[in-house]
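Practice problem: predict the structure.
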Amino acid sequence: MTETFKTRLHRGDRLLGFFIGTPSPAVVEMAGYCGYDFVIIDTEHGPADIETIENMLRAAAMHGMAGLVRVPDGSYASIQRVLDAGADGIMVPHVMNADLAREVVDRALFAPQGRRGVALSRSSAYGAGDAKEYYATRNRHTVVIVMIEDAEALPVVNDIVAVPGIDAVFIGPGDLSASLGHAGDTKHPVVQQAVAQVAAAAKRHGIARATVGRSAEDVRRLKAEGIGMVCFNTTAMLVNAMQALQKELAQDPGKAS
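Answer:
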């Protein structure tokens, strides 16, 4: 039996994937053909509707990738609909206290660990499979990731990561920098101290850590720090490639004036 993404995450394996803000199953397929481990379909900032999300999740499944969704918030409706669509897990932004973390777990997992509603949906094979087996085992598959990206979360980060059912903490340096008054300066000592504080709390509680990366060197450095799940961004990569090409072309002596 193939190991689940959740098993690999808990074990600390190196897991590489992409935030995908463009609502396109083809972009998901590209990541799959290139051998990546997961995609995170971004519905906090991206425009994808639920039908497109479901098709993007199908594309991920076809290539053996985990299909995760960053939901816009921790509400029941936001979490339920993407899990019913077949998401392997959720990433919830701006989790600032343990009460919200508990609500997220409650909404993501079936009883007895939570109170996720039952449905005939893609996730449950539309009822065509063994319902008892599905509801008994799905929690072992569903990944719950909370994002720590606000100054308000820092004093209570230990309480957040201690909530049963949280599989990983995503450390968001970009939003942390803004929340701490240093927007855009993720290398500022105050921001780096906050990042280290969140990472240390997760490590103490045996919770996996995830964050953003921009290069292979980032992956190596983060792995040495005990962070195996590294997320790149397809939008940033595409824009950077376009800008680099434009810069190179601008230096071409054959360019028309």
